[in-house]
Specification:
Largest sheet: 22 strands, antiparallel, barrel
Oligomer: single chain
Number of strands: 38
Number of helices: 4
Structural class: mainly beta
Strand content: over 45%
Radius of gyration: 26 Å
Length: about 750
């Protein structure tokens, strides 16, 4: 792994050595007498102090001001994370409240339906991918305790800057760093209830931080014990078949140590370890509901899934088990630029709830219709991410950003109770050199870049399950070679106004495990399955931003296309997800804003509108007909309805504040039809979802030396509603959302 990296860096440095020497002044630099930045500030490349909320490292890997990046970027700061944690411990709820294009939270261990701009985002934890491009198990949104996250950086829209998988964008959860000299210990306790005896939840956590001279340490551990959840009508909510947060326990351990050294502390070594595991307690089983007279079996009055005390004999607990090792070396004065080398290793295991499903039956094991089984995904990854950024290369304002990323990914899926192979072991190798140039010309920044993906997928021969006719699939290899480009510009019209335009390309795989496990005809070979082809996304975007002393406002409009894309549909026989490969076009508009009236009052708001179309059929592999026109609307499985979120914060005492917020998801009706000329086949699709508005309240009172007391109320008005993605008939998915939840949090730092 190190040889390609060494060769790449050596070649880059040799090619640029003459230019670097030419650009450097012969006279020694004058001593730096400018004051150091404050706690939440850094200096940009021109030496100006910039607030951290206006700086991003995702995609650039070195601090870069937002107003120099042509695109819609969201930075979720520590305060916004803390407010969300007052009302819920859901790891993705903060994104649903603060990121315009992010879909509603699933309120589960699974993040099914949680798309970003209608596509699956790439989730990172300190730059390390949390999902697998081979088998997307919709479990990569719950991988750590949100209490240790210092900020979340979101790049909206397809991007190849951080590697494979960023179809909808990049979400990078960045762990907190010690900021205060000396020792600092924080103890947090939390109690949550819905007023029922079995709904109580407890959290206990402790974080120790030390910052002294050239080193810093952060150690954190937490435990959460969750009860069952209830809807607005006081009825237990059914356990999510893909994994529930309700009736679970989670443990998190995180440690990070950093050491600064060298001249002016311009070098740093940092290492971190993360271990997170959430386990279902297995105290309840799901009781299926009924959608009405058209359901099978039918019922006169719709009733959602619920839970009752019990345990399926022989079943095992559902879990998420994430383990991550991360080491990073940075050198701020390496051949006139900044070098960053990041090595990581991550192991992930996910087990799902037991299901009495058609595609898990086998008459050789048990009579048909009697076999419960549980699927389990195992994924292992390791990689090396490198970058070198050189400002003022040959010309003042010209910045070069180059590097090589290496990644190895392995994944498989088994039926755990019967030890059957469901998705064969898959191995994926990726080598991706890249280069990015940006040029500041006064108030204008122009940037463009190129990334080369040279990847390979290997799958051994395997046999499908009974449901798919036990066919032998010949193993093979698939190579992916893609050239990914981006270009954009931003014009800072004044100190407050800026406009931008950009074009970017993203690259991902189509959840390879699903088409592999669904093969049911003999004579298939891995290297001849068209559904395994890569998905290339092309995104055009324009927007503007205004940032003033009291507030900010921004708007963006985007169009995202994929000629051979993917979307989700429901199998009419199993009610499970199937993958549809056909052209996809998504278009959307996003608005964000905030305004601070005075020291006491502040309001924030965001709005998102997304539409999308795909084809009713993909091109015939035999060449008889091409893919259809873009006449099938994308539904709630891919694109969330219009969203409006807003909040008002009142600092009613010197050490107390209250935030009242609301999130509205609008109702939506989409429909479409088409006729295939080749054989006269008729297709149609219609979908209707109903909207809802949820209010939440958070109140903080800082008692200074005696700690901080916080009250949080989720679903303040105890609204009864059905989650948007659950309104679409699918496999055992008729769930209501949570009713009112009251939480009391106490934390003390000393």
């Amino acid at each position: 792994m190190t040889k390609p990296l060494t060769a790449a860096i050596s070649g880059i440095l040799l090619a640029l050595a003459a230019g670097t020497a030419f650009a450097q002044e012969s006279a020694p630099p004058a001593p730096d007498t400018t004051p150091a930045p404050a706690k939440n500030q850094v200096r940009d490349k021109e030496g100006k102090v910039v607030n951290l909320d206006q700086v991003i490292v995702t995609g650039t890997r070195t601090p870069k001001a937002i107003d120099e990046i042509p695109g819609a970027i969201t930075v979720v700061n520590k305060e916004e994370i803390a407010h969300t944690l007052l009302v819920t411990e859901d790891a993705t709820a903060v994104l649903a409240r603060t990121v315009p294009g992010y879909a509603e939270s699933s309120q589960a261990m699974s993040n099914t339906g949680e798309t970003l701009r209608g596509r699956i985002p790439l989730r990172l934890f300190d730059g390390v991918p949390q999902g697998s491009p081979l088998r997307e198990g919709t479990r990569n949104g719950t991988f750590t305790d949100m209490g240790i996250i210092g900020r979340v950086e979101v790049i909206n829209g397809p991007s190849a800057s951080e590697g494979i998988g960023a179809a909808g964008g990049i979400i990078n959860y960045i762990s907190a760093v010690p900021t205060k000299e000396g020792n600092q210990t924080t103890i947090t306790t939390r109690y949550q209830t819905q007023g029922h005896d079995d709904s109580g939840s407890w959290k206990t956590g402790i974080t120790f931080a030390r910052k002294q001279d050239s080193y810093d340490i952060l150690l954190s551990g937490s435990h959460i014990d969750r009860g069952i959840t209830y809807d607005g009508n006081g009825r237990r909510i059914g356990l999510n078949t893909s994994g529930s947060l309700a009736d679970s326990e989670s443990n998190n351990l995180f440690g990070k140590v950093g050491w600064n050294f060298g001249e002016d502390n311009d070098q740093r070594l940092q290492a971190s370890y993360s271990r997170f595991k959430i386990n279902g307690k297995g105290d309840y089983i799901q009781v299926l509901g009924c959608r009405g007279p058209t359901d099978d079996p039918p019922c006169a009055t719709p009733v959602t899934n619920t839970s009752e005390k019990g345990h399926i004999f022989g079943s095992k607990d559902a879990f998420n088990d994430f383990k991550q090792y991360n080491a990073e070396y940075t050198h701020k004065a390496f051949f006139g630029g900044s070098l960053d080398i990041n090595a990581y290793k991550a192991d992930q295991a996910m087990r799902y709830l037991p299901e009495l499903a058609d595609d898990k039956q086998d008459p050789l094991i048990a009579p048909l219709g009697t076999l419960y089984d549980q699927s389990e995904i195992d994924a292992h990854k390791k990689g090396l991410r490198t970058s070198w950024t050189r400002p003022d290369l040959l010309l003042t304002g010209l910045e070069l950003h180059v590097g090589v990323d290496l990644a190895r990914d392995e994944a498989q899926q088994r039926l755990a109770l019967t030890n059957r192979l469901w998705v064969p072991p898959m191995k994926y190798k990726s080598t991706a050199p890249y280069a990015q140039l940006s040029y500041d010309i006064g108030p204008i920044t122009i940037s463009g870049g190129y990334r080369r993906e040279d990847d390979k997928l290997d799958v051994n021969s395997y046999t499908t399950t009974y449901y798919n006719n036990r066919v032998l699939v010949q193993g093979g290899s698939v190579k992916y070679k893609e050239n990914l480009r981006n270009i954009g510009g931003i014009w800072r019209i004044t100190d407050e106004w800026s406009v931008f335009a950009s074009y970017s390309e993203g690259f991902t795989l189509p959840n390879i495990g699903i088409p592999l496990r669904n093969i049911n005809t003999p004579g298939q070979s891995v290297d001849r399955i068209s559904d395994l082809n890569a998905i290339i996304y092309k995104n055009n975007e324009v927007g503007f931003n205004w940032r003033g002393e009291r507030g900010s406002f921004g708007a963006t409009h985007y169009i995202s296309k994929s000629p051979f894309g993917s979307s989700l549909a429901i199998d009419p026989h199993t009610s499970d997800f199937i993958l549809s490969r056909a052209p996809v076009r998504i278009e959307g508009t996003e608005l964000t804003g905030d305004w601070k009236f005075n020291d006491y009052w502040k309001v924030t708001a965001l709005y998102s509108h997304i539409t999308g179309k795909t084809s009713f059929w993909s091109a015939d592999p035999g060449g008889r007909y091409g893919s259809g026109s873009l006449k099938k609307p994308l539904g709630v499985l891919d694109i969330n309805p219009d969203k409006l979120a807003y909040s008002v914060t009142w600092n009613f005492l010197p050490h107390a504040d209250a935030t009242l917020g609301a999130t509205s998801l609008f109702g939506r009706h989409v429909s479409g039809s088409d006729v295939r000329a080749y054989d006269g086949a008729q297709f149609s699709y219609t979908e209707r979802t109903h909207g809802y508005t949820l209010w939440d309240l958070g109140v903080n009172y800082d008692m200074e030396n005696y700690g901080k007391l916080s009250l949080g109320v989720e679903n303040l008005l105890n609204k009864q509603y059905i989650l948007s993605w659950s309104q679409l008939a699918g496999y055992q998915n008729y769930w209501a959302g949570r009713g009112r939840v009251t939480s009391l949090t106490y934390s003390i730092t000393f």
